[in-house]
Write a structure and sequence with these properties.
This protein has a 7-stranded parallel sheet, sandwiched between helices. The chain has 247 residues and is of the alpha/beta class. The N and C termini lie far apart (38 Å). It has one domain: Rossmann fold (3-Layer(aba) Sandwich). The chain contains 7 helices and 7 strands; from the N terminus they run βαββαβαβαβααβα.
Length: 247
């Protein structure tokens, strides 16, 4: 029976992905910074572990507690929306610590066991911002684009050892805590000089033509985890699929 470890399972994509794989009969290790066992149904095939992807000791403890992992899903992320000019460099570094260096550290932690077994899969969850340039998302896009390039290169590097690497690229899902999962309110990152520019953008996001659901992302991760080809990109949600096709 396969075992999957998923980061960022306290809500949104991670939580839905954990539920989906559990329903499909997998052993699931759902991780989050502050474990909340009540979010997931109790089961012998499901464990909830504490994990902060920016903390090396936390990563080491989680990997040790998890045991052999067949699939790693790097889903934990930090959102930021706003004008780049107004975004403090300290916050930019924090976003990269979670969105970029966090997944890299997790990958580095699981490579030895997967390489030794000559099997395994790593799935990095990025975003549709990597599929087309989007305004007021420069920092977030940069943190996710870095993982896109990293993953593409890693797919070649680890393929030699029988380890597959994938990218899941979710579209816009207003039900996630993306805008809440940040220390700085969006309003603080929109200076008055940007008000006229930002207004129509926020109006468009309030009434999008296409939306991604948490289940779309869970299904894309499922497809990626079970695909035996060398496919790298898995856009998730109708808006992400449309952007990928247009590109």
């Amino acid at each position: 029976m396969n075992t999957i470890l998923i980061t960022g399972c306290s809500s949104g994509y991670g939580l839905e992905t954990a539920r989906h794989f559990h329903k499909q009969g997998w052993n699931v290790i759902a991780t989050m910074r502050r474990p909340r066992g009540e979010l997931l149904a109790a089961s012998e095939r499901l464990r909830v572990l504490p994990l902060d992807v920016t903390d090396p000791e936390s990563i080491a403890a989680a990997i040790t507690a998890a045991g052999p992992i067949d699939v790693l899903v790097n889903n934990a992320g930090l959102g930021v929306v706003g004008a780049f000019e107004a975004t403090p460099m300290a916050h930019i570094r924090k976003v990269f610590e979670t969105n970029t260096f966090g997944p890299m550290a997790m990958v580095q932690a699981v490579i030895p066991q997967m390489r030794a077994r000559r099997s395994g899969m790593i799935i990095n969850v990025t975003s549709s911002v990597t599929l087309t340039p989007m305004p007021l998302a420069a920092v977030y896009t940069a943190s996710k684009q870095a993982i896109e390039g990293f993953t593409g290169s890693l797919a070649h590097e680890l393929g030699a050892f029988g380890v597959r690497v994938r990218l899941v690229e979710p579209g816009y899902c207003p039900n996630t805590r993306f805008a809440e999962n940040t220390d700085i309110p969006v309003a603080d990152l929109i200076p008055e000089a940007y008000a006229d520019f930002a207004g129509p953008i926020f109006e468009a996001f309030a009434q999008p033509a296409l939306l991604t659901k948490e289940s779309d992302v869970a299904e894309a991760v499922w497809q990626a985890a079970n695909d035996t080809t060398d496919r790298l990109h898995y856009p998730a949600g109708p808006d992400a699929v449309a952007l990928a096709q247009a590109r």
